[in-house]
Automatic annotation (TrEMBL):
PANTHER family: CYTOCHROME C OXIDASE POLYPEPTIDE VIII, CYTOCHROME C OXIDASE SUBUNIT 8B. Keywords: Membrane, Mitochondrion, Mitochondrion inner membrane, Transit peptide, Transmembrane, Transmembrane helix. This is Cytochrome c oxidase subunit 8B. It is a single-pass membrane protein. It comes from Oryzias latipes (Japanese rice fish).
Length: 67
């Protein structure tokens, strides 16, 4: 039976694990991250992800105009 190339590739990928699915560690972290560092990281992530989305939603009516 001849399978299409995509099917053969998928079958091969499922048979052999090419990359690890997740890096699971059973030990505690090597370095503790302070609350200040966590706050800075989370704030940066939220601004980076939600900032542009908020801008678009706030200016949605401007984008709808056909001038």
């Amino acid at each position: 039976m001849v399978l299409p190339a995509a099917s053969r590739l998928l079958r091969t990928a499922l048979r052999f694990r090419v990359a690890p699915v997740a890096n699971v560690a059973s030990k505690p972290a090597k370095e503790n991250i302070s609350g200040r560092d966590q706050t800075i990281a989370m704030t940066t992530m939220f601004i980076t992800i939600l900032g542009p989305s908020g801008w678009i939603l706030a200016h949605l009516e401007d984008y709808k105009k056909k001038e």
